[in-house]
Amino acid sequence: MPSGVSKITRHFQVTIPSYIRKTVGLHEGDLIDFEALNSGEIMLKPVHMVKKSQAYYWTNKWQKGIKESEEALKRGEFEVFNNIDDAARSFARDKKNSNS
User: Fold this and answer.
1) In degrees to the nearest 10, what's the CA dihedral of 72, 73, 75, 81?
2) pLDDT class for 13, splitting at 50, 70, 90?
């Protein structure tokens, strides 16, 4: 992984070298998280903001469900419905069977 050196300015600003910005895809206006490590090093990580209303999508539980669904689709484990009534009957049947 590339590394580089930058000087801290009077206002404690640093410039991230262009080859590092390009390597990790940083752009003007991006947010960076700074973490002080026990070793005395500073770790910088890009921050990706998520709207509060969409935060559920990035939870481990939701991502696990998405992955399981994608794998089931690949295995052909799905049903095709011709109309909403057929779908509703199937869901009701599944719910009844899971409660038994």
Assistant:
1) 110
2) very high
95-to-61, 71, 76, 92, 100 alpha-carbon distances in Å: 21, 22, 21, 5, 9
Fold of 1-49: Pemi-like Protein 1; Chain: D (2.10.260)
Whether 2 contacts 23, CB under 8 Å: yes
How many alpha carbons fall within 13 Å on the CB side of residue 37?
Answer: 7
- Domain spans of the chain? 1-49, 52-99
Q: pLDDT band at residue 96, thresholds of 50, 70 and 90?
A: confident
What's the pLDDT tens digit per position in 31-86? 999 999 999 999 999 998 888 898 888 899 999 999 999 999 999 999 999 999 99
Question: Rounded to whole angstroms, how far apart are CA atoms 7 and 29?
Answer: 20
**Which parts of the chain fold into alpha helices (H)?**
18-24, 60-74, 84-99
